[in-house]
Amino acid sequence: MTFAEEPRSLAEYETDYETITATQRLPYLVAVDTSSSAVVGYSNAHLFHTRAAYRFTVEISLFCDPTCTGRGLGSRLLESLLDALRDPAAHPELAPPGARDDVKNVIALMAVDPNGKGDGLALKAFYERFGFVQVSSEVAFTSLSFPCRPSLSRATRCLY
To answer: Higher confidence at residue 140 or residue 4?
Structure first.
């Protein structure tokens, strides 16, 4: 999910889209309601850190309009994003031109709200359905990871 606390402007989203797709060469997917043309969700992968040691690791953001949750939109966005990261050549409709094909680890950070659904851990269960595993836990967030390359062991997947 996203950690944005304030509504963002269209210009901010456009800048993010350009940075992620053109500069970082990573996927940024947008879900649009065909009846109203309204954006109802998005998912993207972006560099986890600028240090060279993290060059094969990305962090994901996933957002679904609250009126559209519980209908599989988040699952479709996440599955499509992971497909584009695993094999961008096989999914040219999802990956930007010249997409990176060297991503090895995907990190998902999540806030834990003890008053939320499932005592705040429903999102953790959601990510685990896609193969993420928890690798660390703090008071306010949980860490999960997912290895993109088939050669990596499932045990290295982590959930943040």
So the answer is: 4
Protein fold of 1-103: Aminopeptidase (3.40.630)
The one-letter amino acid code at 45 reads A
Q: Cα dihedral sign for 91, 93, 94, 95?
A: positive
CB atoms within 10 A of CB 91: 16
Give me the amino acid identity at 123.
Answer: L
- Tokens for 117? 């659904």
Domain ranges of the chain: 1-103, 105-160
Confidence label for 152 from pLDDT (cuts 50, 70 and 90): very low
> What pTM, to 2 d.p., does this model score?
0.83
DSSP string, the chain: -----S---HHHHHHHHHIIIIIS---EEEEE-TTT--EEEEEEEEES-SSGGGTTEEEEEEEE-GGGTTSSHHHHHHHHHHHHHH-GGG-TTTSPTT------EEEEEEE--TTSGGGGTHHHHHHHTTT-EEEEE-SSEEEEEEE-STTS-GGG--B-
